[in-house]
Design a protein that fits this description.
This protein is an alpha/beta fold. It has 6 helices and 7 strands, in the order E-H-E-H-E-H-E-H-E-H-E-E-H. It has a 7-stranded mixed β-sheet, with helices on both faces.
Length: 200
């Protein structure tokens, strides 16, 4: 049984896709042992509570400096004893100590086709704004392993999504979630849980 800890900052739609995937059998052999948010108002925490999943908020606002926050974040992750850490819309840089602790055991979903529109400053709606500004016709989402760089880890899955005439960043964000993110992340977790990916 793959035990996963899901880190999320906002609404938690990718978390919901994982919960639904486990419920309907798209994801097998997997249990969510904890949800962590850096935002106490994140709707993701309510989603976790609704499904009786242990959840916690570890916010940088509650600590004197970044180092203390990072220590607390890592301690909270470790307290759930996960086999895999899933960043599902987690808008916080993951500390290097955590990347070392969970080497090749942290995955992230990014709302573009890496290496396009990724790296420092590209997160959330900003990605979709940049896509529209650049005028590209195809975007998508990427599931990748988290390493010390920003969106530089090994790519596991990608799925393309068309940019349509008249798209706003919000419209594009929704399409990328529906057509790529909510499909790719459960797929990646299921393959890891069943030894088809990341097996040492």
């Amino acid at each position: 049984m793959l035990k996963i800890c899901v880190c999320v900052s906002g609404g938690g739609t990718n978390l919901q896709a994982i919960i639904d995937g486990i419920a309907d059998g798209t994801i097998t052999n997997t249990q969510i042992v904890g949800v962590i948010s850096n935002n106490k108002n994140a709707y993701a925490l309510e989603r976790a509570a609704a499904h009786s999943i242990p959840a916690a908020c570890v916010s940088p606002k509650d600590f004197e400096d970044r180092a203390q926050f990072y220590d607390a974040l890592l301690e909270k992750v470790k307290s759930y004893q996960p086999d895999l850490v899933v960043l599902a819309g987690f808008l916080v840089n993951v500390p290097e100590a955590m990347i070392r602790e969970y080497k090749n055991r942290i995955i992230n979903i990014h709302p573009s086709l890496i290496p396009s529109f990724c790296g420092v400053g590209y997160y959330g709606l900003k990605v979709h704004e940049a896509v529209l500004q650049r005028g590209v016709k195809v975007t998508g989402a990427t599931v990748h392993v988290v390493d010390e760089g920003m969106d530089t880890g090994r790519i596991l899955f990608q799925k393309a999504v068309s940019v349509e005439e008249g798209d706003t960043p919000k419209m594009l964000q929704q399409r990328v979630m529906e057509q790529a993110e909510w499909i790719l992340l459960p797929k990646a977790i299921n393959k890891i849980a069943n030894g088809e990916l990341l097996s040492e």
